[in-house]
Design a protein that fits this description.
74% helix; 137 residues; single chain
């Protein structure tokens, strides 16, 4: 029977390694979304975000701002526990795609001194796509 290099070197099966990798990714993604959702809900407040979304030209800010805030906060909490990872990852993708299209369009992937840059939204969208496709691990 042929063993993988990973298994031969570490004694860990490829499936277990994949699950551990997905766990680490899922917890990291959840932590980032929880922190951002917390700020949107409890620090800035959803009503402030509605005005910010309106100012940024985001369509339907009365729906988009609460959706983004609550998906990030409560979705992040659920994903941290591995619950509803795939459907919530789809919600994360919508939020990050909106950020890329409406907030960071034309910006560099590199973050500027002023906080501009699409790199954060890009990598969070990519990580969410991975969780949507692979599941929680």
């Amino acid at each position: 029977m042929r063993r993988s290099v990973l298994n031969a070197v570490t004694g860990v099966s490829s499936r277990l390694a994949t699950d551990i990798g997905l766990l680490v990714l899922r917890l990291a993604v959840a932590a980032v979304f929880i922190v951002h959702g917390w700020g949107d809900v409890f620090e800035a407040g959803v009503s402030t975000n509605v005005e910010n979304y309106r100012g940024a030209g985001i369509p339907l800010p009365e729906l988009a701002a609460p959706f983004a805030a609550y998906v990030q906060l409560f979705g992040g909490i659920l994903v941290a526990f591995g619950a509803l990872t795939r459907p919530l990852s789809a919600g994360f993708i919508v939020v990050m795609a909106g950020a890329l299209i409406f907030v960071h369009r034309g910006e560099s992937l590199v973050m500027g001194q002023d906080g501009s840059g699409s790199g954060y939204a890009f990598i969070m969208c990519a990580a969410s796509i991975m969780l949507l496709l692979a599941g929680p691990g």
